[in-house]
Every structure is written in C-alpha cells, then in structure tokens.
Write a structure and sequence with these properties.
By secondary structure, this protein is α/β, with parallel strands linked by helices. 32% of the residues lie in helices and 21% in strands. It has two domains: 7-79, no CATH class; 95-265, 3-Layer(aba) Sandwich (Rossmann fold).
C-alpha cells in the first residue's frame, strides 16, 4: 500500500492536511495560516494535483480524490514530483499487525481444515503469508504479487503457490475460490485513488460461500460519504465489522497512516427449500 515518492513533506504540512476538511474533490484548510506557511502548504497541494479556486474557496482536485492522495502522503511522508501523484509502491505489513489480522479473535484461519485454500492477493515480500502459515501450518496459500523481486522474497514452500501477476489479472482468470482471503491492498494506484475498494470487491467474489475476508483498509473508510464508500460500509456492516487500528500500526515500516481492519463473511447461498413429498392417502 502506498506511493512511489521523491519529495518530502514537512511534518507541519502533513498535520495541516490531516486536519483539513474534504468534501468530494475539494480540500478546505483548517485554519488561517501565516503567509509563509500558506505558501509552503499551497506548493505541496499543487504538487498533489490541487488548485486553489476563489469561487469554491477551496483547493480543487479535478481528477483525483484528495483524501486518498493525502493518506498516501501521510503514509510515506513524501509526494511524487510527477504530474500524476498516485503511483504504486510498497509498504510491508509489520509482523505484529500481520499476526493480529491472521490470528486475532476475528480470524477463521486457525480452525481451517488441512489443505484449505487461503488467498493473499497483495503479497509483497510475504509478511501476511508467513503469518497465515504460523496461524495454521496445514493450509495452502496462494500468494499474488506483481513485482518479481518481492515475489521471489516470499521463498519456496510446498504450502505456497506464488503467482507473479497483478491481482486484477489473477482475479479475472482464477479457477478456484478460497476459504479465506487475507489482504493489505494498495490504497491507491495510478489513476485509481480508491484501488483498495476494487481489490476488496474482487476478493469478495473469490470467496467460497461462508468464506471470510480479512483486510486492512484506509482510515477514511469510516467517514467518507461518497457512493463507493457508503456501498463498502454497507457490505462490511451487513456481513461483519471493522476495527480502527492504532496510528502506529505501520510504525515498523517507517510510516504512520490511519487504517482499519475489516472482517466479513460471505453468506451461504440461499437454497430453495424442497417441497414436502405429497402424502398419498391410504
């Protein structure tokens, strides 16, 4: 999850952006800044793709979601110095967080039967894969990772099938479904500021009936009012719940970002009751 970056954002500016109010594609700064501070923050916002609108009295992001861009900047402490800010990079899931997701009270993994299939669709260098096998050494894990070097770092294990592919490509051609999907999806990708929701939707479709989704998601899952966010909250609320993670959950990866842990169970398909056999009079 996160962003390939090259320009460092000062901490004071990150704090100001974190406190800003966002309405759809408009960013409203939280306070009257000094001229010097405003110029610094304005340059950062412009590098992210926002432009000041006198009519709106806000910075407007015509092509992207400012909440996702700011979340990515807070995650890495940097922003891209390119025209497109949301570029793919990688932050490993810290070991403690990986264990919490896979072995905590909401996880089914420990109770799966031997040979059950678990999917990790954004595997990185295998932090969640290792945590899955620690929780249940008898399952089989399919680990999907588009980067060849990170995929190689997962290592060889007869219990793990590594697929070097984007998750979108894998999901489009997958020939099986999974008992559990465990994922820390990219929060944003080039031109796709809510890529994490696309990944969760695809993962949901790859679950068996009664299968479980365990996912890390950005903290704005809890409050954004856009249609996609409302639909995602309705899905999770109907079939599970969420837990807000500590702001330092990714501290060992050298970043700090607001995030949540989502857990939901795909319902068992409805079976039409069979008609009672017709009774024959004696």
């Amino acid at each position: 999850m996160a962003v390939r970056t090259s320009v460092t954002v000062p901490e004071f500016a990150l704090n100001i952006l974190a406190e800003s109010r966002i309405v759809e594609n408009r960013l409203f700064l939280p306070e009257q800044l000094s001229t010097g501070d405003y110029k610094k923050v304005n340059r950062i916002i412009e590098a992210m793709g926002g432009r000041w609108s006198r009519r709106e009295r806000a910075h407007v992001f015509p092509d992207d979601d400012p909440a996702e861009i700011i979340a990515a900047a807070r995650a890495s402490g940097k922003i891209p110095n390119t025209d497109r800010k949301v570029l793919e990079a990688f932050f490993a899931t810290p070991e403690g967080l990986a264990r919490h997701v896979t072995s905590g009270g909401h996880s089914d993994i420990a109770g799966l039967d031997a040979g059950a299939h678990v999917l990790e669709p954004s595997a990185g260098d295998g932090a969640l894969v290792r945590a899955i096998l620690e929780a249940n050494p008898d399952v089989h894990v399919t680990a999907v990772e588009p980067d060849h070097e990170r995929a190689a770092a997962i290592g060889r294990d007869p219990r793990v099938t590594v697929v070097v592919s984007s998750f979108e490509q894998f999901a489009a051609t997958a020939s099986r479904q999974f008992a559990v999907v465990v994922m820390n999806p990219p929060f944003a990708l080039p031109g796709r500021p809510t890529a994490w929701m696309d990944h969760l939707d695809a993962a949901w479709d790859l679950l068996i009936d009664g299968g479980q989704l365990l996912a890390i998601a950005p903290g704005n899952y809890t409050f954004r009012t856009d249609r996609k966010y409302r639909a995602m909250r309705e899905l999770i609320t109907a079939h599970g719940d969420y837990e807000e993670l500590p702001s330092n959950a990714f501290a060992t990866s050298g970043t700090q970002v607001d995030s949540v842990f989502l857990h939901a169970r795909r319902p068992t398909a409805y079976q039409q009751p069979r008609a009672a056999p017709e009774r024959v009079a004696p």
